[in-house]
Records
---
Amino acid sequence: MPRQVLSHTADAGLEATATTFVGLVEELATGMFELIAPVDPAGADRAATVEVASPTVEDLVVDMLSELLYRAEVDDTIFCDFAAQQPDSHTLKVVARGCDSTSIELGGTPIKAVTYHDLVVRQDESGWYGRVYFDV
Amino acid sequence: MEVKRVAPVVWEIPAADGMRVPGRIFASNRLMEAVRQDRAALQVVNVAHLPGIVTASFAMPDIHWGYGFPIGGVAATRVSDGVVSPGGVGFDICCGVRLLASAFTESDFQERGDQVMAQLDRRIPRGLGKGAIASKELVGAVLVQGAKAVRAAGYGWDRDLERCEEHGTSGGADPASISERAVARGGGQLGSLGAGNHFLEVQVVDQIYDPAAATAFGLSEDMVVVMIHCGSRGLGHQTCTDQLRLMGQAMHRHGISVPDRQLACVPIRSPEGEEYLSAMAASANFAWANRHVLAHEARQAFAAGFGMDPTATGMDLVFDVAHNLAKIETHDVEGVPTEVCVHRKGATRAFGPGHPALPEDLRAHGQPVLVPGSMGTASWVLRGVADNPAFASAAHGAGRVMSRKKAKAHASGQTVRHDLESRGIAVRPGSVKLLSEEAPYAYKDVDEVASVCAEADLAAKVARLRPIGVVKG
């Protein structure tokens, strides 16, 4: 289960696993944009570099996903490919690639925001697990 | 969790385990069955933990699982020692509904409906992207003055401001509390629907239940009306995101803990609380203005479709209500008039007859309460009643009963479109695929929601509206 959509009556949720924290961030970011519009990474024609600094891994996840949503909306972009790095424990950097969002048909409802509701980001012996709900 | 019935359509969750007040859900047997299917009741319980909450953590008949607050949640907190929580407002600050009357009957619309729907399709920006009717240059004034600012720029009619909750301007707005990022994200969306459950619907007044109130509201049987449902777009979404981040940090400084991080809150009378209320008001002003501009464009579309001047369309504003907002109001709490912050998350303010905030010509009847259904089902016009038991609040819609994932698996967007069109409802979707997420079967029975509102004395029935045209994001 790298990632799967969670049922929610009004909104949408996503859970994912990965062997590393940056891998988890990449899975959640990919899943979040797939909810809006699945795009073939081969069609990506632009890139953005996003960096956030936050006190906890939960905050790093929410802040990074929120920042990607922000960049997507202001730059009319749907992101589809992500390379994450964690320079230190409180900083997360993602290079996101994508394409023009104005010419594609939506595959799902656009996400308004990333919520803290039922948020889980944890590490155990098998790797990293994350769960996040979105306001749609 | 113990949930006991205390009246025919009232269910109570006794205060326990840190709850400061009981939970109280307004629902019929059937609606309560839907409540039991998800985690909405637990969210009613969580809200009951908020510092300063009084009387009860309420849930309207359209309650369903949200994030932090349930959708349909109402909580009043004492201004003197209570908190304000952005989770009780949501990301789409001042999302709401606007209803326009018209001079047209259903048969008029049948003659010119194709032209009108084509005009609406062309003129109403929706879905992703920055398409907007009004200029971004207006945003600075809009954040302070709301609908008044876009009226001054030539959109809409003077009378619109009289028929809008707060007259279309939320007081206390401070543009400085809105980040440059929020303006960058949503400033270019002034006059746009967005997507999801937001829509512009052409409807017909199907049945009148309260002729006197309907007449005062400007409604008559067989009248074509236009309902617009949208909010503060990216500007509001980013403002809530910004404020939640700040509030999460501030909450610990104030020594507050809550059962769900999305319920982050601070004392109302704290610097952070004051800043949130200022930012919320500025975002609300964007939402009032957004619906005002969309209504202007709807009048233009009808005028073009019918080949007449917009002033001849009779498209007067019936009312505009918010259903995601926190407001400082005075209510009786244990018999004492008390200043409280009423959080309505997916709930509509419903002031009863005589309330001084209502327009003079509506005051005798109570505030119009607009309850949109889902695509293909009815919508309702209710009115506020005296002695509302939930801080003058009522339902805001049908309420979802099926997740988007399940709704999409149930039928394709094309099937939903075909079904609606076979029932005489013209559909102009921004995305055909998205129609399935918003299909009628994904929602509760809005007629039952309206009936429970009436039975619980939340609001009284005025008119039932039936859809004949849908413009979706």
---
Amino acid sequence: MIQVEKLTKTFKNKKGEAFKAVDNFSFTAKKGEIVSLLGVNGAGKTTMLRMLSTILKPDSGDAYLNGYSIRREPGKVRSVIGFLSGDTGLYGRLTPREILTYFGRLYDVPDPVIKERIAEMAELLDMNEFLDRKVDVLSTGMKQKVSISRSIIHDPPIMIFDEPTSGLDILTARTIVSFINKCKEDGKCILFSTHVMRETERIADKVEMIHKGAAVASGSLEELRLDTGFTDLDDIFVHYVNKENILNEEIRENEF
Amino acid sequence: MSFSKVLVVFRKEMLDLLRDKRTIFSSIVLPIILYPILMIGFNSLMSRQTIKLEEQEVIVYVLDNVENENSYFFLENLRETKGIQIYQQTEAYQMLFDEKILQAIITLDEEPLDNEYEQLKVTITYSAVDEKSELAYNQTTKFIRGLREQLVGKRLQAINISENVLKVIEVVDDDIATGEQTLGLILSKILPYFLIIISISGAATAAVDLVAGEKERKTLETILVSAAKRNELVFGKFLSVITISIVTVVLNLLSIFFSFRHIMSQAALDTVPISIPIGNILLIMSIMLPMIILFGSVIFSLSTYSRNMKECYSYTQPIMIVAMLLSLIAALPAFETTFGLTLIPVINVSLLTKDIMLGDLNIYHYLATLLSTCILVAIAIFISIRLFNKEGVLFRTVEEGSIVKDKKGRFNPLNPSFAFLFFLFIVLLFYYLAISWQTENLEVGLIKTLLLLVLLPTILVIKFGKLSLKETLSIRWTNPLNYLLVLLISAPFFVIVTHIAQLINFIYPFPESYLEMFQNMVLFEGKGAWYTFFIVALLPGIAEEVMFRGYFIQAFKSKNIWISIVVSAVLFSLLHLDIFRFIPVALLGIWLGYLLVKTKSIFAPMLAHIAHNGLALVVSNIGDKIPFFELMVKDDNLAWWTILPALALAYVLVILFNKLNKGSEEFATERVVER
């Protein structure tokens, strides 16, 4: 499971002005639960997920994945998560089998187990046909399947997806969505970020709304619907963002 | 870090690299095909050239103005000389000579020496820039030397003196250069160049692909989220760069070895026993390898820093050009391996390769080269590992903006790219204007340079950017105690810098003329003490501080203030256009930058700069009046022990100074904004 406690990450722009990409953000995700991190582009979703996957170090706060701290045990954290995003590409000059073997070894999976898992996933995702062709010549859909297999080669209890369907055609996007659902059935804890409301509506058990790095709302769809009185997630999202903006303005007015 | 993980990464990277066409071409195909082609071309050109010259007959015209017994004897003998043909007709010889059909005109005159003897005067008209004409000259003079002996012998016989009277010295040409050496000489000049460049480009292709390539193909994040540790990834990748480097170097040398041997057995040269001993090849390999690994790691660092391969190649380009220029040094006749040169990368390997090929390798030069390169390799590897662990470097996503405009489209002189262009512009002005001003008149030239090329442009740029001069240049007072401390530290600091300069002088001796010029500048003679002080200390102290500590430190400000201090100090040193004082001046620049950052006032570095230059004046003019001066100076150099009290004093004073000025962080984060 995932437990995020007051994570903060500050970046500097070219002029050296600091801005908070993620600001004091907390939430939890349980086993067998799909949590959607929802926000517009530039809201801080990728930064958040990169911190959870230990690529970036947080400035303050901490998060625990399966009990491992991202600050103190980044190596262990990485071994319990599967990470998939638009930025996790594949090696074009290698074949899917070589790539999967490589990553399996990096995760300390024994070679016979790797072989088994590759065979298993090839069957499941219908990859047998292109398992020994170079990735460069594969179609987007095929590559996506390889990426999925890569992210779960070590059978991690936690899956993190960063905008997993952005830029994909409808059929490939569907493969991903059904894969996420399958992960849930397998009892994994799943966190995925998106700016597509429909996707969230379809599969998420819980929604974490992020705007300008800060949490603006949290809860199951029903809870949010009850809270706002809207049914459509679009409306709900806009409602919370506006509320936040008004709140900020009030604070600013009080300051002066 | 687990070594088996490193091996997993290494094996995958090698597999990946060996499937890359670029890597295969530049590190395997190119070395294998280049040298045979080079050798064949070189050999056929050389042999054709020598055959042509040796077999050629030159045609000369003889204009005989004497027509007596002696001149007939001359003509007769010349006609029988092999390789020289005489043009028989008299008409149009001048025209034929102009058209290069005749290679020389030989004019015979006779001059009476005294009543008894006459001298045959031979004028050879030829052109030294025409190879054939020069050959004609050489053949003719050789012929005349022989003829002279015969004629003298005749005269001596006539007066009953033995010919042997003249035989005092006999010259025997005994060229001990073996065929191996002769060929080695030619090859030693061009091979280091090719070897270095091709090996570097082989390592570079791999290094660029390994990180920048991963960034470009978006696979970097994939491995960073895997269970592998950063160090395991770096070492695995590094091992691949090193392996590719080794493969490239070995293939290059083997290719040289075999193509050379082949061409030897093919050409007519096989009468002389020539070979490149395999031992020499191994020696060259042993110095070439660390250097290639050095380049591999430098480019690996650049690769880590770059956002994509294109960016990385553009950073690699200047490095390759510098490497090319440095490796050409071996081909220059004036350069010979010295201890100082063995400390400079590329030059040392280039010169040593030449030495090895010529068969005169100095073991100390060899060891010094090996050691200095290995130290640099260690530093480079350390830096690249540090870089690879920096998230800011791995995820450089800041969009590229215009060079001179900020996000809002305004001109911003505090943009690092603009500052760098500005600096290049100033360097050009120095090159074209300052040098000629100063040769014309040193004092006036210096004043003009400092005012017009240093102070004025800096102020103009800041004004043009609509920035506050006061704020940008840190014109503000600081704690008065600081001025006192700065003045006090100047003395031990001057001693330390002088020691460093002496050390450099010891390794790379300054030319005499340089020292003389330097002396002229700082001596009071004929100028007066105050005027010299104004030119050499006060004015540079103000103008250069405004430009380097005032403007450049602001412009190159980054998260780590030391980067801006060091960058501005290096630029400061570069602008002195003086390779001999590069390190001492850069150190001075770092110290001055530190003063600015700590005190947040331009006046502190200004005072320190003036004091430093002022001390140089005092020491060179009235140094002998300083108490204990004789004790401290030995053979025109500071005695070695003076470094100890200087370091101790500087240490105490700097601690005091740091106590007085706590917190330089504000300076690093404060930004100068538009007025």
